[in-house]
Amino acid sequence: MSVQDFQQVIIRRWWLILVAILVAAGGALGYAGRQERIYRASATVFAHPSHVVSTPADFNSDVGILTYGTLAETFASLAESGRFLDEAGHDVGVQPAALSHYSTSASTLPSTTVLQVSVDGPNAQLAAKLADALVTRVAQATTQYFRTFALTPLDGAVTPKNPIQPVPSHDALYAGLAGLIVGFILAALSIYRPVAPAAKLGNADSVYVPHAHAARQEQNGVGVK
Q1: Could you tell me the residue range of the domain that residue 89 belongs to?
Q2: Could you tell me the CATH number of the domain that includes residue 71?
């Protein structure tokens, strides 16, 4: 298909392409409007050697272990465990059935020993409370199992205002792009059609001719079989 063919499709069938875009984007917006809103609340905690570390050599050794990432990843895994989420839910008074709608994630911030703990769920306020309670639980477990390390809470979770999903604007954009592609294909098919099998024309390739071009052939007395 040449550039002129693309232009003809757009000029002659722009309305069909527009309808496809609007239908796709509208459908995506309608679908997003029926989905459950999921919010994310995050709290941060600082991993560092505890007060029981007294000598500079031990301090440097412990900092090195944290920097290497092994223990930092362990602390993140603790925050992501279902056990500690259940304990945090018990602390804020959430029933197990309701708690099943929430999930956790944790990771260390780049080039730091700061751990970010996030809780995702349908209730923004409850997600923030769970994130703070989870940080407290993980800090207590760290003191219990890793006596030479401690987790000090830094920034408490803030109640999120906007959900992380669905994002209607993104859904509508991607659906609109898909509608553009489908609309152009439909528009091209409505203009260009096969006029004869390749075998009858003695050609191994299929031949497609626009309606307008086929009409001109008939006017000139050229038969297409």
Answers
A1: 39-153
A2: 3.30.70.1130
